[in-house]
User: What shape does this take?
Amino acid sequence: MNTLKLIVILAATITVGNVTMGQVGMASINNSIDNVKNVEKPEVGKPMPDFTLDNITNYKTTKASLKDFRGKWLILDLWFKGCAVCIKSFPHLNILHEKFKDKVQFMLVGDISKDVGGNAIIETYENVSEIQKLKLACAFDSTIIQKYQIHSFPYVYIIDPNGILVAITDGRDITNDKIEKLTDGKSVTFFPKEREKFISGINNSNPKDSDSLILFQSTLSKYTNQDFFLPPIDYQLTNQFKRKGFKIAGVALPFLYNLAYFGKHHWTMGDSLYEKVHRQPVLNIKDSSLFDWNDRIIKGLYNYSLDMPPSKATKENIMEYIQNDLKKYFGYTATIEKRFVPVWVIISEKDALEKLRSKSTVTSFKGDETCLILKNYNWSKVPYLLVRYMKEPNLITVFDETNLTGEIDINITAFMSDFDQVRKELRKNGLDIIKKEKEMKVLVISDLNN
Assistant: This one.
């Protein structure tokens, strides 16, 4: 008997991470453990441990310690060059900085440890700053990041004018209203950064499992603030994973349906499904609110787990069980049809190849939130990179209709989140990206009575 449960978990308020690490050198393991134990951990509700930031730009000094910020709220926003979410938030933080600069000091802290000499992250910040006219202070200093072994970004400390740490968050809900309440002395709750671990024990390797009385069990629950875990079915059936069934965490309902009918919740350019299957279901239902989702504010996300005997754990069986569970709980029917759907198409002018033909013998690549600069790069890889760095195409399939081949040089210097800027740069290179319609396989979700 397959059982479907619904577990609703209430949203959490601020929590404090319980694991921090000190800097560990080449000393013995015992000394390393002692070093970690001796690190004073930032703890919400207590004074923030003292620190010093070096290499500060857009600030009155190039070096500052915690005491230098006394009398103002301090928001330390830790980031690194590869964090698109971090960089995309800068214009918003800049607006808040301009409005609250008399009461709040916003300080970006860039992790230079991943760069040789820190040059790449500094250049990225300068490019974004120039394009977006930023006035945000930024310290290029990895000391805090390494001291507390921070690996997930954005990572934000909010410290009151007396040096008390009031929140550790990921910045998703640092809004005008909340900053205003903070400065007015009102109580404010921010989304917690530290998340409970979800994946521990996920491979079900306990030998006692074979003696369990449970043959089949499926669980559907509301996602709150666990770790995201979004694998395809094939991955969990591989020998190295050895999962008896399937588990996923933090999936939006449209993508849970994708998983049930195509075996993957999401696919990107280069995948066998990419140009054949529309990347999100078409909704033929009266009330589509259950399909609204936002992973930044944790809205409309679910966890799903299916346990079954190893002999039954095939991709086809797992997909069938997920399909049945979705129908039982949500009450929709789903069919795979062929329909014309909107797509993005990359096109080129007649002389585009002459404009783009590589003049370099050395292959180089530079891509981030501020640019995509390629030299002696094979065109076949360029559409993928455009989709990767642009935000506008998102879940709509992108087709290459340029017929370009060979090695090219291309320079797109723009804030990649700004579609109009990117398109303007593409046109300078004899390219464009436009919307069309193409016939593709589509998962159509309908009310039962439709």
Q: What stands out?
A: The first strand starts at residue 4 and ends at 7. Confidence is low (pLDDT under 50) at residues 1-37, 195-212.
